[in-house]
Amino acid sequence: MELRFIQTAVRLIGEIAHPTRCGTCGLLSETGLCPTCRAEFEPADPSFEWFGSGLPLLFRAAAFRYHGRAAAAVRHLKYLPNPFLFEPMALDMAAAFARLPLTPCDVVVPVPIHPLRRIERGFNQAEVLCSRIEADVRTDLLRRIRRTRPQAGLDIDRRRTNVRGAFSAEPAVEGLAVLLVDDVTTSGFTAFECGRELLRAGASRVGVLAYATGGQASEGEPHEWHLDP
Ligand SMILES: [Zn+2]
Questions:
Q1: For residue 77, with 0-12 CB atoms within 10 Å meaning exposed, 13-18 middle and 19 or more buried, which class applies?
Q2: How many angstroms is it from 65 CA to the middle of ligand 1?
Q3: Do 34 and 62 belong to one domain?
Q4: What pTM does this model have?
Q5: HSE (CB half, 13 Å, CA atoms) of 7?
Q6: Cα–Cα distance measured from residue 25 to residue 5, given in angstroms and rounded to the nearest whole number
Q7: Separation of 185 CA from ligand 1 center, angstroms?
Q8: Distance from the CA of 56 to the center of ligand 1, in angstroms?
Q9: Could you read off the pLDDT of 15-24 as tens digits, one per residue?
Q10: Residue 17: inside a domain, yes or no?
């Protein structure tokens, strides 16, 4: 059999058995994020910010700027949803976790979505992003008790009130250092509200690690944190 035919057959069978497309641009790719898209992801700047112990969040860390193809990947992960992105984005998150310049937390807590939204979507994107982090990932310590509108598209004041009182933390969090994980932080209100609830339930400290952070004027997303305790 001619070699080229075999190579073509193997490639076609491979694509049928393991069809992989870039989750951002849709082109065939060996991984769920093609090199072209991946090269355009910009590191978050800053990638780590201290806020201080007087606030619900001690720090915010992020892997990438919420911009361009990184922002598209975040949206495709959640809204399409595109399962090709699960693995590469989870690996990105594990790498960002490994780079954190602080003592590892006791538990990693993915920011919860409401149970009804979970049924609709079939998964929580924040849990997907935790799947490769080598730590104690806990989904039983924080619940979303009120369904909220997506923060994207709301102005800054509505973002604040939209998530107020939306979360409830379990007493089992007492004494634990918590790292929240979310797909994106823009205004920061969601992580702020989670932090407030976790501290109220007795967590020793709370920080947040997001896949992407910030926002561009072109996307209509304010990049501003209002961390009044
Ligand atoms: Zn691509």
A1: buried
A2: 17
A3: no
A4: 0.84
A5: 3
A6: 29
A7: 23
A8: 37
A9: 555 657 898 9
A10: yes
Q: How far is the CA of 40 from the centre of ligand 1 (A)?
A: 10
Q: Which domain holds residue 167?
A: 42-219
Q: Is residue 229 part of a domain?
A: no
Amino acid at 118: R
Q: pLDDT tens across 71-118, in order?
A: 999 999 988 878 889 999 999 999 999 999 887 799 999 999 999 988
Distance 128 CA to ligand 1 centre (A): 20
Residues 106 and 187 in one domain: yes
Whole-number Å distance, alpha carbon 25 to ligand 1 midpoint, is 4
Same domain, 47 and 34: no
CA 19 – ligand 1 centroid, Å: 14
Same domain, 11 and 93: no
Q: Report CA 23 to chain centroid distance, whole Å.
A: 16
Residues 14 and 62 both lie in one domain: no
Q: For residue 227, tell me if it sits in a domain.
A: no
